[in-house]
Amino acid sequence: MDITTESGCSFFVTYETFRISDSFSHYKLVSTGEYTGTTDPCIEWCPTNKVLNRCKCEGSCADPTCTESCSSTPTCVCPDGFLMDGEDCVPRENCSCFIEEAENGQGVVLAEGEVYVNPSCTKRCSCNSGLLSCDDTYRCSPNGNCEERQGLSQCYCNVGYTGDGVQCDRATASDCQAYSTEDSNSIRLIQPAGWTGNPFQVMCDVSDGGGWLVFQRRDDSSLSFHRDWNEYREGFGTADGNFWLGNDKLAALTSQGQYELRIDFVSKSGQQHFAKYSSFSVGNVDTNFRLSISGYDSSSTAGEFHFIFFLQVDSII
């Protein structure tokens, strides 16, 4: 039998056997036997702000995200725009960590531990222990920018800097490209990717567009370049004088990507020349630090010296 009450609740009951008496007994229903049927109580009303629904996506002020689920049995749930706060279903703007100005004025409820930064990066709010705290002095570092990444606005440090976007410190660069916009040549500390030793000093040159790393200087005879294999492998001299950077360091540097090579020199007659190549690399120790070079730039002024650079280096002073 299917039964519907005045309040709209539906029930059913099934009997294993039944018998109806004769007319003398007014056709009374007797001997119904064992039965099965609806056992769940019928929901006749829902608490304040809740509605009866078979599907629910019921978040809370502490965790406003939720996953929708549906069942055959109706239940009381918070409707859209409402969240559970303890045992109560409240409008989401009544949650203690509600930010009215967020999401173009539609507002947003921060989950416990969640952080919100406004699109202009001038305000940072967080929800901790159910309490909203906001910092109106939040600003990006001069070495950072306000950006939106994966839908979230925040201060981020520029390339070559590390930090939280509010405090950005110069990172240890992998080469001199990070200093290409500097006004003058400078000695910098770098650490190429894959270099397992300590960071080391190099001279970063800003001429010809900047970003050049000086790995050899030989202005005079004050430092001998007649060295053995290990000395050329390790390097010698200092970055602010005559020096050779070291083959191991050159191999690590040029393994990071494609690099150009520029050679500046003065001929015996005192004329300045340069040669530029579009591709330059030094192999590791397993290749005996093999030099690979190609792409001679036609704007170079090396002339005939281009053909003897690596054959008679000591004769070019």
Describe this structure in words.
The chain starts with a strand and ends in a 21-residue tail after the last strand. Helices cover 4% and strands 38% of the residues. The radius of gyration is 39 Å and the shape is elongated. Strand 25 (259-266) and strand 26 (272-282) form a beta hairpin. The chain has helices spanning 229-234, 247-254, and strands spanning 2-4, 10-15, 19-20, 29-30, 35-37, 51-56, 69-77, 82-85, 88-91, 98-99, 108-109, 115-117, 124-128, 131-135, 144-149, 152-157, 161-163, 168-170, 186-190, 200-205, 212-214, 216-217, 236-237, 243-244, 259-266, 272-282, 291-296. The longest helix has 8 residues, at 247-254. Mean pLDDT is 85; it is low at 309-317. A three-stranded antiparallel beta sheet has the order 1-2-5, with no helix packed on it. The chain has three domains: 1-43, no CATH class; 96-135, no CATH class; 172-315, Gamma Fibrinogen, Chain A, domain 1. The protein is mainly beta. It has two helices and 27 strands. Keywords: EGF-like domain. This is Fibrinogen C-terminal domain-containing protein. InterPro entries: EGF (IPR000742), Fibrinogen-like_C (IPR036056), Fibrinogen_a/b/g_C_1 (IPR014716), Fibrinogen_a/b/g_C_dom (IPR002181), Fibrinogen_C-term_domain (IPR050373), TILa_dom (IPR025615).
Task: Describe this structure in a few short sentences.
With 317 residues, this protein is mostly beta strands. 4% of the residues lie in helices and 38% in strands.
